[in-house]
Amino acid sequence: MNLFDFFSFSFHAHNERKQADAALCGRSMVEMLGVLAIIGVLSVGAISGYSKAMMKYKLNKQTEQINLIFNNMLEHLHTPNAFTCNAAYECSNTSIFWKLNAFPTTMQGLTTSGRPDTNSIYDVLHTKYYIYSTSTPSLGVRITIDNTQNGRDSCFNILQTAKEFYQDILHLQFRRGTSEGEKWEWLISGGKSNYYSEKLNKLDITKMHERCEVCDSQSTTCYMNIAFGK
């Protein structure tokens, strides 16, 4: 073998070794696509799991906030002369609770002008609470459920919490806002009255989900009125 052939042989042998090493270390396109597909599936699962965990956290937080609202209402309902209402229909009392620092500022929304909304209370799911009193006397809360998303879950959570306050509730009313006006959907009595035949404490899980179907539609507004009585 002459010198030229020797160097030519060495060069080709070196290239073959490099290609073999590259083949051992590299990955084919099919393998890479497979890896990307697995990563994609895992990512979807992780996002779905995170969304469920976040919703569970928000529902638990909402339960805490509902309990805070109801307990504050009952405390002031049983305080002599805490609220007086001589109006024919109702008197707004939400602003009074804000003046009493009964709720954290995180539950306060903003008006269209950007000022603090002292006539409403908002929970973590953006459900709106408006507290009012009547000359009965009673203290009620009008709840507007944000039904653009998770409306039924929020409604069910509120209804389930309200059952725990059954003995203090006069009645609970469902209304649905439509293009033709408001429509009464469900009328339910609490432990303080027998206004309506259906009793709040008798609602099972299935019936509660049925009652909350009114909050499913994104084309309407879902309202819930809960009145507490002495």
Description:
- There is one protein chain.
- Helices cover about 45% and strands about 20% of the residues.
- It is an alpha+beta fold and about 230 residues long.
- The chain has one domain: TcpA-like pilin (2-Layer Sandwich).
- Strands 1, 2, 3, 4, 5, 6, 7 and 8 form an 8-stranded mixed sheet that branches.
- Strand 3 (about 130-135) and strand 4 (about 140-145) form a beta hairpin.
- The radius of gyration is 31 Å and the shape is elongated.
- Mean pLDDT is about 80; it is low at about 1-10.
Entry summary:
By secondary structure, this protein is α+β, with helices and mostly antiparallel strands.
Question: What is the H-and-E element order?
Answer: HHEHEEEHEEEHE
CATH architecture: 2-Layer Sandwich
Tally the helices.
Answer: 5
CATH class category name: Alpha Beta
Q: State the domain count.
A: 1
Please describe the biggest sheet, giving its number of strands, its sense, and whether it closes into a barrel: 8 strands, mixed
Total strand segments: 8
Mean pLDDT: 81
- End-to-end separation in angstroms reads 113 Å
Query: How large a portion of the residues is in β-strands, by DSSP E?
Result: 15-25%
How much helix is in the residues?
40-55%
CATH topology: TcpA-like pilin
Which structural class do the helices and strands define?
A: alpha+beta
- Rg, rounded, reads 31 Å
Poorly predicted parts: 2-11
How would you name the CATH homologous superfamily? TcpA-like pilin
